[in-house]
From TrEMBL:
The protein's name in its UniProt record: Succinyl-CoA--3-ketoacid-CoA transferase
Xref: NCBIfam families: pcaI_scoA_fam (TIGR02429)
Top-rank taxon, per record: Bacteria
GO molecular function: CoA-transferase activity
Native organism: Hyphococcus luteus
Length: 234
């Protein structure tokens, strides 16, 4: 199956529908599938449930979909960099399912592994635990969390080969590998597509069997909050 597509719009063609659930890799603005997010915006698909660590910033990443009101619900662990997210949530325009960050990662990993639920101590005794099953193991209380799956996963990687084998770079790996396994379809955008056999099999993070479509994108490497020390007087 030919996996490489010419652009993000072609890569998403036939996969989108209103009301769908999408997993989007990345952490902050690091390792986000920015070209695929732009194509989602331009497609006009709406009433989306987005599973992602955060919602980007106001003018970049998933924040673009908030401005166009295409997102109905976010399943996230951190949303502190987006004023439009705050406004929509506090006004009741946007649903939010908060997760501890490790729990969110494990829910995605579990979904990709076919594990329907698991128990964790994280969140016991907090609002996170309300309405969830509690169980004791070895005298300790745990809460049950369910695995997550999506209609579509969009991820960003550093390199890929034509079979869709993916290699992530440093912290841009973040949520991408587990989300790549948990979508009914997975589309990856990468910085470089190499020839088959050029990737060391021991270095592949996501096997190509999980990836249905692939594009090479141009990427803007933004910094969310640039903090530098004042230069000392010479």
């Amino acid at each position: 199956m030919k996996k490489i597509r010419k652009d993000a719009a072609e890569a998403l063609d036939g996969l989108l529908f209103d009301g769908m659930t999408i997993m989007a890799g990345g952490f902050g603005l690091c390792g986000i599938p920015e070209n695929l997010i732009l194509a989602l915006r331009d497609s006009g698909v709406k009433d989306l449930t987005i599973i992602s660590n955060n919602a980007g910033v106001d003018d970049f990443g998933l924040g673009l979909l908030l401005h166009t009101r295409q997102i109905k619900k976010m399943v996230s662990s951190y949303v502190g960099e987006n004023k439009e997210f705050e406004r929509q949530y506090l006004s009741g325009e946007l649903e939010l399912e908060f997760n501890p960050q490790g729990t969110l990662a494990e829910r995605c990993r579990a979904g990709g592994a076919g594990i329907p639920a698991f128990y964790t101590k994280t969140g016991v005794g907090t609002l996170i635990a309300e309405g969830k099953e509690h169980k004791e193991f070895n005298g300790e209380t745990y809460i049950m969390e369910t695995g997550l799956v999506a209609d579509l996963s969009i991820v960003k990687a550093w390199k890929a080969d034509p079979e869709g084998n993916l290699l992530y770079r440093k912290t841009a790996r973040n949520f991408n590998p587990m989300m790549a396994t948990a979508g009914k379809a997975t589309v990856a955008e990468v910085e470089e597509i190499v020839s088959l056999g050029d990737l060391d099999p021991d270095c592949i993070h996501t096997p190509g069997i999980f990836v249905q479509r692939l594009i090479k994108g141009d990427h803007e490497k933004r910094v969310e909050q640039r903090t530098v020390r004042q230069r000392e007087n010479a």
